[in-house]
């Protein structure tokens, strides 16, 4: 297996003191809580008692090698897989049993691995599909055209004729027009040129500024560390490490990614998140 480049983690950003005369802000209620989630594909156990907590405004990155259970986790959060056990709580409400469309209406939208556009539909028609169960909010096809400047002039083009990066942008736009509070991004960089990946990830600050929270799956560890406020590593469906990038060394991440920590008899590192 080729090991990904693992840079030394950057320093974690720390909030400044509260303004004079004001009490310090307390912790916000988590937007998403996953508690002891176990998922099977037939007889195969894909996830084992995975727990995580995502707060509003975060970019929470799930990393791990192929087969680690990353996409299974996102598909379960989107309602596309039923868990064997465990609980998914969104904004204080138990959504474990909700159908995918009900989760979209509640504020959870996913950009799936491989884009999964309707190739015979136009760009605009694909965006309108995403708006079928939309919540009230600022995102519309027009707002998406503003985010991706090339898209307006090509909104009548069939999606099958777009490049991979352009299709990824349309897939993101399709999720945005549902006006989610939590955006699930599955392997944004898969199959794309590095320059395209940089452009796609470069839009994250705009999404966060618009009030979104992002939970992303990424096999490229260096890319995840550059954008994430919190990192969670899976190996064979189990948590091997979690924490803020600035709190994790490259050695710890590499051990968790390849299972070296478990082989050495070490437990999961990081806090309860």
H/E topology pattern: EEEHEEHEHHHEHHEHEEHH
Q: What do the pLDDT scores average to? A: 85
Q: Would you tell me the structural class of the helices and strands?
A: alpha/beta
Q: How are the strands of the largest sheet arranged?
A: 6-7-8-3-9-10
Could you describe the largest sheet, including whether it forms a barrel?
6 strands, mixed
Binned, the helix content reads 25-40%
Distance between the termini: 29 Å
Radius of gyration, taken over Cα atoms and rounded to an integer in Å: 19 Å
Primary descriptors:
273 residues; alpha/beta; four-stranded antiparallel beta sheet; disordered N terminus
Structural overview:
Helix content is 28%, strand content 22%. It has 273 residues and is an alpha/beta fold. The strands form two sheets. A six-stranded mixed β-sheet has the order 6-7-8-3-9-10, with helices on both faces. A four-stranded antiparallel β-sheet has the order 2-1-4-5, with helices on one face. A hairpin with a 2-residue loop joins strand 4 (85-90) and strand 5 (93-94). The chain is globular, with a radius of gyration of 19 Å. 39% of the residues are buried.
What does this entry show, briefly?
This protein is α/β, with parallel strands linked by helices. The protein contains 10 helices and 10 strands.
């Amino acid at each position: 297996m080729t090991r990904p480049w693992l840079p030394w983690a950057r320093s974690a950003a720390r909030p400044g003191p509260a303004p004079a005369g004001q009490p310090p802000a307390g912790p916000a209620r988590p937007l998403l809580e996953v508690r002891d989630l176990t998922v099977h594909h037939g007889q195969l156990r894909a996830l084992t008692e995975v727990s995580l907590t995502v707060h509003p405004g975060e970019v929470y990155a799930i990393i791990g090698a192929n087969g680690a259970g990353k996409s299974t986790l996102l598909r379960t959060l989107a309602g596309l897989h039923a868990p064997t056990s465990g609980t998914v709580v969104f904004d204080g409400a138990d959504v474990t049993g909700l159908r995918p469309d009900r989760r979209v209406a509640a504020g959870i939208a996913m950009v799936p691995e491989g884009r999964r556009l309707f190739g015979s539909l136009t760009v605009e028609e694909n965006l309108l599909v995403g708006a079928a169960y939309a919540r009230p909010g600022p995102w519309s096809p027009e707002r998406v055209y503003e985010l991706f400047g090339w898209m307006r002039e090509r909104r009548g083009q069939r999606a099958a004729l777009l490049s991979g990066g352009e299709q990824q942008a349309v897939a993101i736009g399709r999720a945005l027009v549902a006006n989610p509070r939590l955006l699930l991004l599955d392997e944004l960089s898969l199959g794309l040129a590095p320059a395209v990946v940089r452009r796609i990830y470069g839009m994250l600050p705009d999404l966060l500024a618009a009030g979104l929270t992002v939970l992303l799956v990424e096999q490229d560890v260096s890319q995840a560390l550059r954008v994430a406020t919190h990192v969670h590593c899976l190996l064979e469906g189990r948590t091997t490490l979690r924490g803020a990038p600035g709190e994790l060394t490259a050695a710890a991440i590499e051990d968790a990614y390849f299972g070296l920590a478990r082989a050495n008899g070490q437990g999961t590192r990081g806090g309860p998140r």
